[in-house]
Structure to design on (256 residues):
């Protein structure tokens, strides 16, 4: 694996490079989505806000999740590793609410607009985990596509499931699905919130399943911390899907 890349006297973490790539891809996708939804919002403001506060929240979430790590080494908050996906999601959700208020639009419409971008950005970020070999790989396997990470940040010479690749494939498929699902919404044919609801449900299911072959220890009822949050994500998505249909139906009835 290749945790770092050196160019002259400068050294760059491949995880950071892939995160930047994810934001760049997300920018172009979001710009197109905002245009087709006819939302007068600057995509760079949305992406930079979500990226900045998402990274900060992901670090804080890790500190809450592992308080001993924070107490023993508070400086890890400034390190180039140690990020949590759901912490980033929580930070991103908060920023979207704030931006919706600033731009005076429905928060559900903005959540719909960023859903496909969140999916593909996460998948590309996971490829950064693969390059870094940071321990996000899965359990040992004898399958022909199993991989070893002898030079990773968390090395292993045993053939393991390359779970970051699994997640990238799932995220890319989800991004395509959400993009297509968002097309009717741009013409007011779908209730606001439906795209984001599908994102919460499907990304939660994908994360729950991949955790089955991960090395993370169970914390509650045999579930890992990520699986517990994934269950919450799925339930929240189901509730939002049902509620947004009701809101959409009431809005449609009021216009008749």
């Amino acid at each position: 694996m290749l945790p770092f890349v050196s160019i002259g006297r400068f050294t760059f973490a491949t995880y950071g490079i892939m995160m930047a790539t994810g934001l760049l891809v997300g920018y172009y996708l979001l710009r197109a989505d905002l245009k087709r939804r006819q939302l007068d919002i600057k995509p760079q403001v949305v992406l930079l806000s979500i990226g900045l506060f998402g990274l900060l929240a992901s670090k804080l979430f890790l500190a809450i999740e592992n308080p001993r790590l924070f107490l023993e080494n508070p400086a890890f908050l400034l390190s180039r590793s140690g990020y949590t996906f759901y912490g980033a999601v929580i930070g991103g959700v908060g920023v979207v609410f704030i931006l919706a208020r600033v731009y005076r639009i429905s928060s559900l419409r903005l959540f719909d607009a960023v859903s496909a971008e969140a999916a593909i950005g996460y998948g590309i970020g996971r490829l950064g985990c693969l390059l870094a070999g940071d321990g996000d790989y899965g359990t040992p396997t004898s399958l022909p596509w199993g991989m070893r990470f002898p030079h990773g940040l968390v090395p292993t010479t045993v053939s393991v499931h390359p779970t970051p690749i699994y997640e990238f494939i799932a995220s890319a498929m989800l991004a395509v699905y959400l993009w297509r699902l968002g097309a009717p919404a741009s013409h007011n044919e779908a209730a606001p919130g439906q795209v984001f609801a599908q994102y919460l449900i499907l990304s939660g299911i994908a994360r729950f399943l991949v955790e089955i072959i991960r090395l993370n220890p169970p914390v509650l009822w045999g579930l890992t911390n990520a699986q517990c949050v994934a269950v919450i994500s799925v339930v929240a998505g189901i509730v939002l899907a049902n509620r947004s249909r009701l809101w959409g139906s009431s809005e449609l009835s009021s216009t008749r």
